[in-house]
Specification:
Elements lengths: L15 E6 L3 E8 L2 H19 L8 E5 L3 H4 L5 E7 L5 H7 L2 E3 L3 E9 L2 H14 L6 E3 L5 E5 L12 E13 L5 E3 L1
Antiparallel strand pairs: 1-6, 2-4, 2-5, 3-4, 3-8, 6-9, 7-9, 8-9, 9-10
Amino acid sequence: MLSFDKCGREFSDMSSGLVYLRPTRLVYLRLTGPYDATIPEAWSKLFAWYAKCGTGAPAGRAYGLARDNPLRVGADNCRYDACIETSPLIDERALRELGLITLPGGPYARTRHVASYDLLRNSLANLHSGFAAPRDLKVDDRRPIVTIYLDDPRRHDDAKARADVCVPVSAARATREGSLAAA
């Protein structure tokens, strides 16, 4: 079982495991600042942009990328990307008005969150320093923490909203002294 205990009680009662996220093309909107303020603002702006596109189609799967550890860069310098999977309907417009990126693929420790997205948002900043990686793995600081939002909060009961929180991990190797080091 993976442990998110240091990050708050709202992470109890979640299933967990290791997953491989495939690289995925995403439309993104980046804001910089404390996560508790930038996350809701980024989503509000991204959804407003998408509604303005006028496709009439539901948005693709939503991803949140928490790129920085507030303890290392300071809360005001944290970068957050609100993202949706791109489609031919919005690809060209997104390239002109926002941006396109590729979700960094690779192994992640995944934990399912079932509760208000507000509770999740308040804990994301702590995951960078409070996550306990499974044995023989370490947090991979080169990739962001990825939140995959499974339910649209505009159309779903917020108290039962589901999201997969994915912390990037990589193999750790044993050193001569017997401790683990980055592979």
